[in-house]
Design goal:
The chain has 364 residues and is α+β, with helices and mostly antiparallel strands. 27% of the residues lie in helices and 8% in strands.
């Protein structure tokens, strides 16, 4: 009887067996987490695509009603399209912009809306879910926006003391002309001439993209009125809107006390193609010294490379995103495409320019 009892097998795991099981579980988790993260990013990228579709629809509905796309900035006149309204705010009235648009318009001005506590405000259509920067409740955070209008291959003279490695792509001579650079001969990309620097013009002839920031922001003139007939390369071959990362765009890191961010002004109408997509800008801490042109020191430019310095606006105005390998863009026909950041740079300029005579398609 005793022999029978002692001969029964013991049930359970040895220490070695437990360690093997734990190791297997760890390996499976390690394999699963990247897949989960990839699925989450795919969902965020799709949500970003849908936001751009809504904004492009707003621009097209605006054009259907007004016979031109929203101006990059319109400092003259009154709300809903004047009073320094941005293209994004103006387009909200032509889609389901929610109660914010109606409340701000009813307030009579952006200043009045700010006094009523309506602004600044983070609208659901202004932030890409793949970008986790600046999602707090400070004024600067609420003012930021991931979606900017395309000015295409627009010239951009840098602040004094800063390099301008990309000016040749606007077909303008580096360092020439405070406003409109002299034409580069021969041009880097045949088909268009140099534009007015920064897109700060009301003149259609000096604008190569679908938007311009606009001229005198304190006067009555703003960006030119651009209609489909002005897009001679074809709406499906021209960039309308694209993504940026507010953390690396100096105009969104320094908000004046009287600014309200994305609904007003011209800083979300300055997306340029002359800079390579996803051009790396130095990450810097919450710099409290205020914006200072080309103040590229250890606190603002850790790499020491001024072509990576956030205080150099000649390099910060390009399109960029947190999506791996490229960024989402809305085309002038309203469609949305993901464009690889390895795109041929000349083709990128021709996609940004609306009338270069070299219509190109986005590679699949």
């Amino acid at each position: 009887m005793c022999n029978i009892l002692f001969s029964r097998k013991r049930h359970g795991f040895t220490l070695v067996e437990l360690l093997v099981v734990i190791a297997i579980i760890g390996i499976l988790v390690g394999l699963l987490l990247p897949a989960v993260q990839a699925a989450r990013e795919a969902a965020r990228r799709m949500q970003c695509t849908n936001i751009l579709k809504q904004l492009a629809l707003g621009c097209h509905n605006f054009e259907s009603a007004r016979k031109h796309f929203p101006r990059g900035n319109n400092p003259g006149g009154t709300l809903p399209e004047g009073n320094n309204a941005s293209w994004l705010f103006a387009s909200l009235g032509y889609i389901e912009g929610g109660p914010l648009f109606d409340k701000v318009v009813a307030a009579g001005s952006f200043v009045a809306a700010g006094n009523q506590g309506l602004l600044p405000f983070r609208h659901p259509l202004v932030r890409c879910p793949s970008d986790g920067y600046g999602l707090g409740t400070t004024k600067v955070d609420l003012c930021q926006c991931n979606y900017i209008a395309s000015t295409g291959p627009t010239c951009n003279n840098p602040p004094g003391g800063c390099p301008n490695p990309f000016q040749l792509h606007c077909n303008g001579v580096v360092g020439s002309g405070a406003n409109k650079p002299a034409a580069l001969v021969p041009p880097t990309h045949p088909g268009y001439g140099p534009s007015f620097s920064y897109g700060s013009t009301s003149n259609l002839a000096d604008t190569v993209g679908m938007f311009a920031r606009g001229g005198n922001v304190n006067g009555v003139n703003g960006g030119p009125k651009i209609s489909p007939k002005d897009v001679t390369d074809g709406l499906s071959n021209t960039l309308l809107l694209g993504e940026t990362l507010p953390e690396f765009l100096e105009a969104q890191r320094y908000i004046n006390a009287t600014d309200f961010g994305w609904p007003t002004g011209n800083f979300i109408a300055q997306g340029q193609t002359i800079q390579p997509m996803n051009w790396k800008i130095d990450r810097m801490n919450n710099y409290t010294g205020g914006f200072s042109a080309c103040r590229c020191d250890a606190s603002t430019n850790p790499s020491g490379d001024k072509s990576r310095c956030q205080m150099n606006w000649a390099v910060t105005w390009g399109f960029k995103s947190n999506h791996t390998g490229g960024a989402n863009f809305a085309l002038a026909d309203g469609s949305v495409r993901f464009i690889s950041d390895s795109i041929d740079h000349r083709n990128y300029q021709y996609l940004g320019c609306r009338n270069d005579g070299n219509p190109v398609s986005i590679p699949d």
